[in-house]
Structure formats: structure tokens, C-alpha cells
Amino acid sequence: MNKTFIYITLVLISWVSVAQNTIQVTDLQCEMLTNPLGIDVVQPRLSWQLETDASQIEQTAYHILVASSPEKLKNNEADLWDSGKVNSDATVNVQYTGKRLDSKDEAFWKVKVWTNKGESNWSESALWSMGILTYAEWKSTRWIGYNHLFEGDSIGQFAKLSARYVRKPINLKGKVKSAKVYIMGMGLYEFYINGEKIGDQVLAPVPTDYTKNVKYNVFDVTSQLQQGDNVLGTILGNGRFFAMRQEYKPYKIKSFGFPKMAMQLVVEYEDGSKETIKTDESWKFTPYGPIRSNNEYDGEVYDARKEMPNWNKVGFDDSDWLNMMWVQEPGGFYEGQMTPNMKIMDEVKPISISSTSRGTYILDMGQNMVGWLQIKVKGNRGDKITMKFAESLQDDGSLYIANLRDARTTDAYILKGEGEEVWEPTFVFHGFRFVELTGFKSKPSLDQFLGKVVYDNMETTGTFECSNETMNQIFKNAFWGISGNYKGMPIDCPQRNERQPWLGDRTTGAYGESFIFDNQTLYAKWLDDIKYSQTLDGGIPDVAPAFWRYYGDGVTWQGAYMKVADMLYTQFGDEKVIKEHYPYMKKWLLYMEANYLKDDLMTKDKYGDWCVPPESLEIIRSSDPTRLTDGEVLSSAFYYHLLQIMKKFARIQGNSDADIAYYDALAERIKKAFNTKYFNRENYSYANNTVTANVLPLAFNMVPDNLQQKVFENMVHQIEVVKEGHISTGVVGTQFLMRTLTEFGRGDLAFKLASNKTYPSWGYMVENGATTIWELWNGNTADPKMNSQNHVMLLGDLIIWYYENMAGIKSNPEKPGFKQIIMNPDFKAGLTYVNASYKSIHGIIKSYWKLNRNKLQWEVTVPVNTTAKVYIPTSDALKVRLNGEKINSEVYQSENDKIVLSLKSGTYTISAKL
Ligand code: BGC
């Protein structure tokens, strides 16, 4: 008896301790931020990931402790929140419901979990800090600026304004225990303490419509401050605030005035006392520093002769500097910035340099990139080097600049003549592959130049490689195009005088992008930009923030509001964005209905199926009625689709029955009217039978029952025969094309479109030297008026298709955030292998399959605490092996001639004969 008892106890103890060592809680995040300082959400959401070598792990409970100091947390003294043991499998977005936190409070937290196979230890601890929660707390912090032009400044088409160098000596009376700075520097700022730059961000803060909301950044500056004298220094650049063609087209381009700033430095001394230093008119500035002008479109001019050594350190003589003035605040409310700033994310070494007959040199970076060029030069004081940026060359080897419109894209550096000088700009970026260099007396060497790649500081979460080289290169081009166009908001292009966050370019693109980049906080911020730009009657602009004031009242562009929110829900499990934005979305839907719904059809459209392949290679916009799809067709179908999404959102946000009934009834009426007017029962086509006119009703499930297959066959005929196996859709149709083809059984045709090298296709761009994605299918021959070589809108649903349909990595929308993964690749589309991974919010998902004749070999990784449904296209279970073993009915079911394995976390090898 005794013996048996002891034996059982031992087994139990050793089992628990093995499990404790193997299950680890990692990657603690608050509001999905890796550096969560200045959170201004009163009840932030906490997330973590589980890691283990063991398989089939499910979390059964968690326990969170939150304390006001690291010491307390260490002793498990959770004075802010002790969640207790909560039976739940949630690891993402668990809402803090502890003591109410005040402005600037710090919270330290950790978590442990229980699983079906034992419990973890306590995680490492993590921290978040609160922002400034009330407007009143900023009241005595003055906005300071100086609303005047100085020598060299100008307004107008090519507005110029030197950077303002701002300086404030301070004296700290004791030893600093901790210190944080809360800074708003408009349009862009660089902040220094005692000469040291604070943070590794560039081009901060993220742009907003400053009359609606202004973002502040928060930094922990404890280690930069000392007892006694210190100097705070700021350089203010223009960004979108000043110099976006200031007062050039005031009816169209929004501008905000002269640069300005407001800042609080909160210091806690070791004796427990606190002091807050705030901006006021005692701060001094000079407009005569080295950055002579900085304009996002035209470039930066830097005169090194005007450098002011140690201007941001103690002891500098600022007696001839001017005092800042107390100026009006920008107008918008203040918000802690909840998405990371931009950063230098990569570097590119140039591949060649060649001389021109004009005595200049052309540098080739080998990649169309976004950011800037660092130069190393030697020369005489006053020598001037200029760099003009362009995406490609003309036949004669000179820069192709016609597509930049009136953007001058030129940086200039004037040497101080003191040995080797290393320089890069501070407040501009360029989209370029080639740089024309002027001012070198002899041919410079390649190692004098380095490309700095600049985009939002976000993790690359996806990899993709397959057996088709064209598809691989398209993926790389997409990577460069998408990342380069992240500029605190998703912009259309980085090179010409536009760079606007057009809604329609990302309606579906954002979803594809989310497989490659952790873009959750960026797109959450963008939804706020859209919300803030809504008119009082409900209209939404074409561009948000509405730096260009276009309120075109379309559906396909404006629909990005709902589609991007849906992406955040499906890919990241983010319900909060739905709840927050639902009322504004609904307002827009009703606004459109009230103003533009006639005879149950949505009559207003602005851009059509933008950028279809035109009838001649030289033109931008087609006027051929057989290529274009009627705006009413696009808008009505899209509006119908949005109503379906809104039904889902209504459910998520609760209290929804009346709303759902309303959307349902409206959708039914639209479907009926749409089919009555546009469905042609003789040839099973829609409207004028473009691929777009057919793919939308197919994708949106509007086609009358039992006729889907017929409509699909007609569409396939259009693609295969009429368009000879080529794409004929523009920005709207391409968003649904690849998935619809595959889901209706013609993955092979989608594969043909994805791997085509002839015009029009993505591969045609590759064949013609593209290293990003073009704005136009005919981007190498079209009129330069609208012909960017770095636009991502034509990607449509291609990247989604890469991951969901080719790799088989798809989040089940019913169990969002990849809580359940649908792994159902089309093995027969034409690829022989795909090797892809995606770092989801639960951990890494992998899918690596190879097909050798009919033999499938597939390695799959399912993250801890998730499940996967894995589809194998055979109905014969005997032909399937899981980790080398036959499968039994506990792990699989049959579904439409496929074996579906239900897998829990772990790495598996699947083999099958197909
Ligand atoms: C932009 C596009 C945008 C379009 C809408 C173009 O100038 O570059 O990205 O969607 O205008 O009209």
C-alpha cells in the first residue's frame, strides 16, 4: 500500500517539474507594443506567448500580477491587480481590470499559466507606463514656436524653412531616480539631452491631421540626466506640418503653420520629490543652424559651415539666440502615440557608379528603396555636393524624373572642409534606386555611400519561398514596396509630389501585408486617422489623414475603413477596433445610403476599377468601355459586401439585432436590384462582362443560387480565352481575383496569372527590371504623369493568396487571430514546393510542402495553444501518414473528398499519396 503511494507521488512530482521547465511564457506585450511607454488607454490589454518543446499544449488558466514597483512584483505583492487564477485559454488582449491607473503611473507585470500538461513558472516581468490622461494636465505646458520666416525661408510651391534649433538649460537639484519626457514636436523633431540623441526613431512623430489629434512620444531619460546642469535640445523639422507646398493650393492641400513644440520632463529625485519642467518662452532657438531647408518633396539642404558645435550641451553660449514665443496649439487633442515611429530598418550598399558627360555621377543602389543616402566626403570648405534621387534611368543613362512631377527630390551638403565629413539628412525621405551626384571633382568610390532604409519600426513576421522564381521575385518586390510605403501611415508612393494615404490602395492590400509585417498598430492608428477625418454628416475622405482634401464619396476607397478593421480582427483578433469604430462606420453607411442609393443601387463611384491594363501601352487611363466596369456595379457590389461585414461587426459589438436586421434587409434589396439590372442570364455574365464585373458578385456571394458555377465558367473564359490567360482587372477587381479563382477550383489559372512574365502581369514588371511593384501594369511605357514605380495597390489579393491558398496559412475568421489555422493549400495549382512561415500573435506557424509526382511531403508547425485544420486532398485515409504513422479517426474527418486532420500545437510531418 505504502509503496504504491510513494511511487505515484514521485511520478507526479517529476512530471510537474518537467512541464515547468518546458513551458515558458514569453513576449509579454501591453497593447501589442514592444516598448509600451505612455499608454493612454485606461484599461490596457495584455498579451503573451507560450513556448515549449512539448506538443499538444493548451492553456487552461492564467494568473496575472501587476505591481507598482519591480520589487513588489518580485515579492508577488500585486498592489495594482491580482487577476487570480482565471480558467481561460486567452493569451491575447486580456484586459487589465485592476486599480485605476493615473497619468504617468508605471505598472510592472508578469504572468504564469496552467496547461493541459502542467504549469509554467512565472514569466520574466514587463513594464508599461501610462501617458498623460487628461487634457488639463497639459494646460500649463506652453506651445512654443516662432511664426516668422527668416533669411532663406519661403512659402509657396517650393516652400522652404530652415530647421529650428531649440535649447533649454535646466538645473536639477538632486540625484535623479527616474525621468520621463513627454514630447510633441510638430511637424518632426529630434530630441537631445546633453548632446545625446534620445531614442533611435527618425521622422517622429507619426503624421496626423494636427487639427484633429496630435501624438506625443514618451521616453525614459533617467540615464541621460545628471544632478546639476543639463541641456534639453530639440531640432524642429517641417514634415507634414509646414512646407507641404505651403499655401500653394490652399483649397486642396492642408497645412498647419510654423513648427512648434510642447514638452514635459518629469523628474523624480532619489529623495522622492518630483519636478516637472515644461516648455515656455524662456526656451531659446535659432533658425540659422545647418539644416537650411527640409521639405519632404524637394529634399534637405545642409550647410556644415553653419554647424554649432555643442549647441545642445552645457556651456554653449546662446546669448544671440531668440526666445521662443507662446503660440497657439495645433488644435487637435493629444494622444499617446500607440504605434512605433519610423527607424532605419536596413542598409543598402550601392552596386555601381558611372560617369556622365555632364561631369556628374550616377549611383545605382541596385534596389528601388525608400529612405536616404549617407555620404562620406572630403573637400574644401564651401564645396557643395548635391544628390538627386530617381527610380530609374532613361535610355541615355540620365535620371528619369518626369514621373516625380514637381517634387525636386534633391539633397545638398555644403562642406565645412575639416577632413572626412559624414552626412545624412534628418527630415526628408526619398523613393529611389538611382542618385545623380554633382560636385565631386573625381569619381567617388562606392564605399562613400550607404543607403538607409526607413520605415515604421515593425517586425517582419512572414517568409515565403516557392518553386517558381517569378513568384519569389514578386514577393521580394512586394516586401520592398510595402515596407517603403509605411510612413506612420500607409502612403501610395514615396517619390513624387503625392505620398498620400489613399484609402483604396490598401482596402485589401492591408490584409496581404499583415502576413509579412506586424502592421497591427500602424493600421489601428490609420483607422483613427479615418475616424478623425469623417465629416459631421458622415462622409469619409479618399485620403486619410486628409492632407489632400478629397471627399469623393466612393465606396471602394472608403470601404477600406471596414475592410482594414476586419483585417485587424481576423489576423490579430482585435475586437476593440471593431467596437470603437462601429458607430462611425455605421454613420458612413447610412450617409451613403441616404445620399446615393437610388432604386436600391449605389450610384456614386469615383475612381472606377482604377488602373486596368489600357488599350495602348502609352496611356495611363483606359477609355475603352470593354475594359472598364461601370461605377454603379463596383459601388453596389462593394456596398453589399460591406453590409455583410457590418453584420459581423454588429454581432461583435453586441446589442445588434436591430442593426443586423437593417443591414440584412438592405443587402437583400441591393442584391435583387443588382441581379435584375446587371445579371445577364443568357451568357451568365454581369454588366459588360469584364472580369471585375463578374468576380465581385462571385466573391461576395451575390450570384443567384446554383448559377455560381456558370458565372465562374464564363469568367474563366474571359480570362483564359478573351484575355489569353492574362490579368485584365484594376485596383478593385484584383482584390478578389486570385482567391476566387482558387476557391472555385481553378488555382492553376491563378497560378498562371501569378507566374506570367508577359504583359500584363506582375512578372512582366519583374522581367522589365522592377524591384518594387508599379502603379501601372504598363509602368515601363506609360505617360509619366501618373507612373510611380513603387505603388502597392495592384498587388490586390496576391499576397493573401500566397499565404492562404499556396502555403496554407489562414486564420479561421470564426476563431480569429490564428487561434485556429486553416491549412488548405492548393497543391495542384502548379508549384512543386512552398516553404512559408508566419509569426502569428500566438507564435510561429510553418508550412513547408513538397510535391514529387504524386507524393506529398509536408511539415507543419502549429503554435502552442492553437489548433489547425489540415486538409489533404485525398479521400483515402490509408494513403496518409502523420509523423510516419497511420492516422486514426480520432485525428481526422472527411470533408468534400479531403482528409482533414485536427492538430494541436507541435511540429508534424505529413506524407500522402495524392
Ligand atoms: C494615387 C493612387 C490613388 C489614386 C486615386 C493616385 O494619384 O497615386 O494611389 O489611389 O490617385 O485616384
Automatic annotation (TrEMBL):
Sorted alphabetically, which keywords does the UniProt record give? Hydrolase, Signal
Ranges where the Alpha-L-rhamnosidase six-hairpin glycosidase domain occurs: 460-806
| Record-listed E.C. numbers | 3.2.1.40
Residues forming the Alpha-L-rhamnosidase C-terminal domain are: 808-880
Root EC class: hydrolase
- Lineage top rank: taxon: Bacteria
Is the Metal-binding keyword given for this protein? no
Recall the GO molecular function terms of this protein's record: alpha-L-rhamnosidase activity
Q: Which Gene Ontology BP terms does the record give? A: carbohydrate metabolic process
Which Pfam families does this chain map to?
Answer: Bac_rhamnosid, Bac_rhamnosid6H, Bac_rhamnosid_C, Bac_rhamnosid_N, Ig_Rha78A_N
What residue stretch is flagged as signal peptide?
A: 1-19
Q: Where is the Alpha-L-rhamnosidase concanavalin-like domain?
A: 356-455
Q: Which reaction does it catalyse?
A: Hydrolysis of terminal non-reducing alpha-L-rhamnose residues in alpha-L-rhamnosides
Domain named Bacterial alpha-L-rhamnosidase N-terminal is located at 175-345
Alphabetized PANTHER family for the sequence: ALPHA-RHAMNOSIDASE (EUROFUNG), ALPHA-RHAMNOSIDASE (EUROFUNG)-RELATED
Q: What is this protein called?
A: alpha-L-rhamnosidase
The scientific name of the source species is Aestuariibaculum marinum
